[in-house]
Amino acid sequence: MATSKNQTKAERQQTAREKARQMQEEQRRQEKRRSLMVRWGVVIGVVVVIAVVIGVIFMNSSRSIPNAGPAPSAGNDQGGITLTSTTELAPGDEGLEEVDATTVEIPEATGEQPETVPDAEARPAGEPAQIIVYADANCVHCASFETENAEQLNQWLDAGEVTVEYRMLDFLDNPATGNYSSRAANAATCVAENSPENYNSFLSEIFGAYTGHGGQGLSDDELKDMASGLGADIDSCVDGNTYRPYVTYSGAQARAAGVAGTPSVWVQGENWATAEQGQSFTDWAQGIMDAS
Prior knowledge:
Layout: H1 9-64, E1 68-70, E2 81-85, E3 88-89, E4 98-100, E5 129-135, H2 140-158, E6 162-168, H3 180-194, H4 199-208, H5 210-213, H6 220-229, H7 235-239, H8 244-257, E7 264-267, E8 270-271, H9 281-291
Parallel strand pairs: 5-6
Antiparallel strand pairs: 1-4, 2-3, 2-6, 5-7, 7-8
C-alpha cells in the first residue's frame, strides 16, 4: 500500500473520504445502540411501573376488604345459598348474622377432593335431593357445567325434586381482573339479598358471560347493569362490597373442606368426580336420586 507521502492528491482525498465514512458509520452504530438501550429502558420502566401499580391496587384492595362482615339472610354457615325453585331461596341458618373468615381453620391441603362435604346428606328421607355446587364466576369449566346442565337443574328445581346450593368462591381472584371472582360472587349475593327471585337467573347470566370476557371478568358497572336488566337494584351493595367478607368466608370454608377446584359438585353427598368416565352429569345424578 502506498504511504501518504507517495499518494497522489486524489488518493489522499479518497482516503480521507473513506475515513470520514467509517467514522460516520461508527457514529451511526453507536447512536443506534444508544437509541435501542433507551427504548428498552423505557419499556422496562413501564413494565416495572405497571407491576408496581397492580401490586399497590391488589394490596389496597386486599386491605380494604375486611375478613368479617354481614351474612345474607339466605346464607348458611358453609357460605352457600340454596335454591328451592328457580325463583325461591331457602332461609339461611338461624342466627347467622355475621361471618369471619379468620375463624375458619384450614388444614394442610392434600391435593385430593374430599369424599363428602359439610352439610351433605343433611336432608331427611323423602325430601328433595340435595345438590351442592362449588363454583367460581371466572372458571371456564364452571361456565361449561352451567351451559350443559342449567336447563336440567331448573327442571328438577321447579318439579320439587332437588334443591341446589351454590357456594360461590374466590379461588381465581387475580389483580389483573380486579379480583373478579370475589366481585361477581358479591354481586350474586347482593341479588340474593335484594331480589331473591332473580338469583338463579343472575347466576346463569354470570356464567353465560364467560365466553364474552374470556376470563378477563366484568366491571362492577357491568355487573350492576346485568342485575338491573333482571329488575334487581344492587348498586349500593356492589359499590360498598357488602358481601365480600362473606365470599372470603365461603372460600375459607371450601378450603377447610378440602375442595381443591371448581366446579365441584355433590348430589346426596356423592362426589361427581367419582362418576364413570364419559357419563353425563344428568345420568349420574338421576341414578343417585333414584337410589336415594
